[in-house]
Amino acid sequence: PLDDARELFEFGTGKDGSHMLAVSPDARTAWTTDLGSRTVTRVDLLTRRAPLSVTVGEEPEGIALAPDGSTLWVSARGSNQAFALDPVTMQVRETVATGRFPLRIALRPQGDVAVTSDLQDGSLSVIDTASAKVIRTIAVAGAEGAQARFQVTILWSADGERIYVAETASDTVAEVDYASGTVLRRLKVGEGGDGMAILP
């Protein structure tokens, strides 16, 4: 437990369904996906204002900042798309068709690919960040096991060699070898596990 943790401030985005967020390394800026409003909002954490919101796809939910901070990636589960945005101007640079219901997106630590968690397909779409094209699809549960597993959050290992996929319906985390696309094992976890983190 974080015994010394305290709430610094609470900020209302003014949008419907603000859910996931990404924070800049310098902790000056945050970006939220606003499911119900179909928007992505940039929040200035110093002035505590949200100066800019843009419409991005249908039901944007997944969000991740590139390791070098140059690009903001968003996945829109309602339109089966991923978007690359300028994190400052919020202009959409690229639009990518993904698998079905991509409710999370995560950048490899090396920054060369972004991966979406495509819940209804039970798979991962691997997007080359340079070309903004899907270059691979990795089956985790596959379409036949998608409902039984119900994959949600994805997390990269620090070396970019493994992808961990939270499967909330089966109370498991799938460990996937990125190079081969093979599910190495499934770890049994608590009921309905979703959020994940790796301690330094």
Tags for this entry?
mainly beta; Methylamine Dehydrogenase, Chain H; 4-stranded antiparallel beta sheet; 200 residues
Explain this structure to me?
The protein is mostly beta strands and about 200 residues long. It has one helix spanning about 145-150, and strands at about 20-25, 30-35, 40-45, 50-55, 60-65, 70-75, 80-85, 90-95, 100-105, 115-120, 125-130, 135-140, 150-155, 160-165, 170-175, 180-190. It has a single domain, classed as 7 Propeller (Methylamine Dehydrogenase, Chain H), CATH 2.130.10.10. Strand 9 (about 100-105) and strand 10 form a beta hairpin. It is globular, with a radius of gyration of 16 Å.
SSE blueprint:
Blueprint: E1 18-23, E2 29-34, E3 39-44, E4 49-55, E5 60-65, E6 72-76, E7 81-85, E8 92-97, E9 102-107, E10 113-118, E11 123-128, E12 133-139, H1 146-149, E13 151-156, E14 162-167, E15 172-177, E16 182-188
Antiparallel strand pairs: 1-2, 2-3, 3-4, 5-6, 6-7, 7-8, 9-10, 10-11, 11-12, 13-14, 14-15, 15-16
Give the tally of β-strands: 16
Q: Choose one word for the global shape.
A: globular
Mean pLDDT: 95
Instruction: Provide the low-confidence segments as ranges.
Output: none
Give the spatial strand order of the biggest sheet: 1-2-3-4
Summed up, the helix count is 1
Radius of gyration: 16 Å
Domain module tally: 1
User: What structural class is derived from the secondary structure elements?
Assistant: mainly beta
For this structure, what is the CATH class?
Mainly Beta
Query: Strand-and-helix sequence, N→C?
Result: EEEEEEEEEEEEHEEEE
Distance between the termini: 16 Å
State the CATH architecture: 7 Propeller
Under CATH, the topology can be stated as Methylamine Dehydrogenase, Chain H
